[in-house]
Design goal:
With 139 residues, the chain is of the alpha+beta class. It has one domain (10-137): Roll (Thiol Ester Dehydrase, Chain A). It has 4 helices and 5 strands, in the order βααααββββ. It has helices at 19-29, 34-37, 39-42, 54-67; strands spanning 10-16, 75-83, 92-103, 108-116, 122-131. β3 (92-103) and β4 (108-116) form a beta hairpin.
Amino acid sequence: MSQTFQVGQQASVTRTISESDVYLFAGITGDLNPAHTNEEYAKKTHFKTRIAHGMLSAGLISAVLGMKLPGPGTIYTGQTIKFLAPVHIGDTITATAEIQSLDLNRNRVVLTTTCTNQDGRVVITGEATALLPWDDAAG
């Protein structure tokens, strides 16, 4: 491993959740829950409008781990998630991962994961575990 990792290191990915994101996610996963896909149905729910799938927003954590920290070659091995608030179509979500512990002998990392919306409201919290990327895997 040529990259140096340290406790407290963090990285983020930001994305605005679009209507097409919700429909594409529904189509890919088969989760056609009307709370996500049917505005008339959603108007009658607690949220009064459609909300994005929780796992759509949580998926942004995967983007942080796979592309930024630890980065390409990372193998995601676990995730705990708490959904704290809904994500609406048009919300801008920032997923952040912060290294909490490292075990370089076993090539493992534990990260705190958080997703916040454009207002700074935490919508998801959790903890991820991963295998750090191997330098010689590419070559």
